[in-house]
Amino acid sequence: MKKNKIKIISLVLILAAVSACTPVKPWERGNLALSQMALDADGQEAAFRQHTFYSKESASGGYGGHGGGCGCN
Amino acid sequence: MSLINRLSLAALALPGIVAEDAYAGRVDETFSTDFQYAHYEESNDRMEVDVFNLTAVAPIGKNFTASLDLVRDTMSGASPVLNVKDGQGNVQQFLSSASITDERDALNASLSYAFDDVDLSIGGGVSDENDYFSGHVNAGVSWALNKKLTTLNLTGSVAFDEITATGRPEINETKTSQKYLLGVTQILNKDSLIQSNMTFAYHNGYLSDPYKRVYIEDTATQVNDARPGNKFQWAWLTRYVHHFKAANKAALHADYRLYIDDWGVDAHTVELSWFQPIADGWQIVPRFRYYTQDKADFYQATFTSSNLGAIHSSDYRLAGFGSIGAGIKLTKSFLMSGFVKEVKLQTAFDYNDRKASYQIGGDNSGSFDDYSFYMVTASINARF
In this predicted model, what pLDDT tens digit does every residue of B349-371 receive, in sequence order? Predict the structure, then answer.
């Protein structure tokens, strides 16, 4: 039941994303190229935050990044 | 070359329009060095950590990019060991003495090669501390298609860890981890993009925490933490970014992550950030984070001899709880025309409050292990 729900939500999200797409020519991508629009604008800070939350919470993943260490304390 | 192609190239030559920035998986075309100092500190004189991080990225020839990343963590303070139930039935958390100190050094290196629409990367690294060693290798491919409106990402990594424990010479264990990421980044229109990543991780070996103990109420004794020998984790992260021209080109970043593992933990994470450019290269970023998780199947605050079982843990990270965080980040960018093209200064402060009562759902064990922490970062980034 839970798996079905996840499948349905995935499908709806993918359809919504695809249908929302409009052709964007390369010269129309100026806004997307702004630094504040970057998904990973500050890699070092992102790595520090992910390492902290990974050490203090059960959940991890989704973001990129490799390696780690104990994160025990 | 068609007129359209020539116009595209001409448009890309305009300042502020960099094609490689407009889709994921781009190759850095400049040398850059970043240095960051970060401080993490918990309430009630628990752990504090100082982190120094140096990163250098360099293009090699036309197609290669190499990067090197060095990290040093210095940790000190007290850490929770076990919970005890007192005569009134109240659970109390006991910490180690405040004399824990450790240092972690990590080195990561990567090399990527860019074809027209495909980036290949390989990397590896080590992380070493007194009682823990981890080494990993990783590889990834990033493929831009659909006129670079869509980017597919696939990465895989495997890590080999060696675990020992101060004060427990019998602990000499290993753990292997495999992690895979499958992701897609889609430009939706000229003002927004979305990314959706799924990661699958499988860990095998010693997954217990050698410093954690569990308390058995009826015998008033304690035994070591004991977790299953394997763990499967699944995470699905969706990130949406939207540009607001009218708000001085501000950007909203909204992330949601669903997490499920086979230890019984389901978790939800929501993060919102508002990137607000002000003027003269100044930018301010207020941000918010909410996290909630269910407890692991084998977690209990304390045990009895009849419900102890072979697998048991009282680790506060396997409990049911929620966490609310808020922070603010300030950046200032200096554009230059000499040898150094850009210098960026960044600083941020984040506060996180972790409470059992913030959990969605109700399988927490009470407020005895609530705590808070803050994080401060300061960094300087230079592009040549």
Answer: 999 999 999 999 888 888 999 99
- A15 interfaces chain B, CB cutoff of 8 Å: no
Average per-residue pLDDT for chain B: 91
pLDDT digits (tens, 9 = 90+) for B78-135: 999 999 998 888 999 999 887 778 899 999 999 999 999 999 999 999 999 999 999 9
pTM of the model: 0.89
Distance from CA of A1 to the nearest CA of B (A): 15
Instruction: Show residues of chain B in contact with A69, CB under 8 Å.
Output: 73, 104, 106, 127, 129, 132, 134
Subunit contact B189:A22, Cβ cutoff 8 A? yes
| Residue B301 banded pLDDT, cuts 50, 70, 90 | very high
* Per-residue confidence (pLDDT) for residue A67, from 0 to 100: 60
Contact A73 B186 (CB under 8 A): no
Q: Is B179's CB within 8 Å of A44's CB?
A: no
Q: What is the total count of domains within chain B?
A: 1
Between chain A and chain B, the number of residue pairs with CB atoms below 8 A apart is 216
A43 touches chain B (CB under 8 A): yes
Q: Any chain B CB within 8 A of the CB of A3?
A: no
CATH number at residue B155: 2.40.160.40
3-state secondary structure chain B: CCHHHHHHHHHHCCCCCCHHHHCCCCCCCCCEEEEEEEEEEECCCECEEEEEEEEEEEEECCCEEEEEEEEEEEEEEECEEEEEECCCCCEEEEECCCEEEEEEEEEEEEEEEECCCEEEEEEEEEEEECCEEEEEEEEEEEEEECCCCEEEEEEEEEEEEEEECCCCCCCEEEEEEEEEEEEEEEEEECCEEEEEEEEEEEEEECCCCCCCEEEECCCCEEEECECCCEEEEEEEEEEEEEEEHHHCCEEEEEEEEEEEECCCCEEEEEEEEEEEECCCCEEEEEEEEEEEECCCCCECCCECCCCCCCCEECCHHHCCEEEEEEEEEEEEEEECCCCCCEEEEEEEEEEEEEEHHHCCCCCCCCHHHCEEEEEEEEEEEEEC
Give the domain extent around B344. 3-383
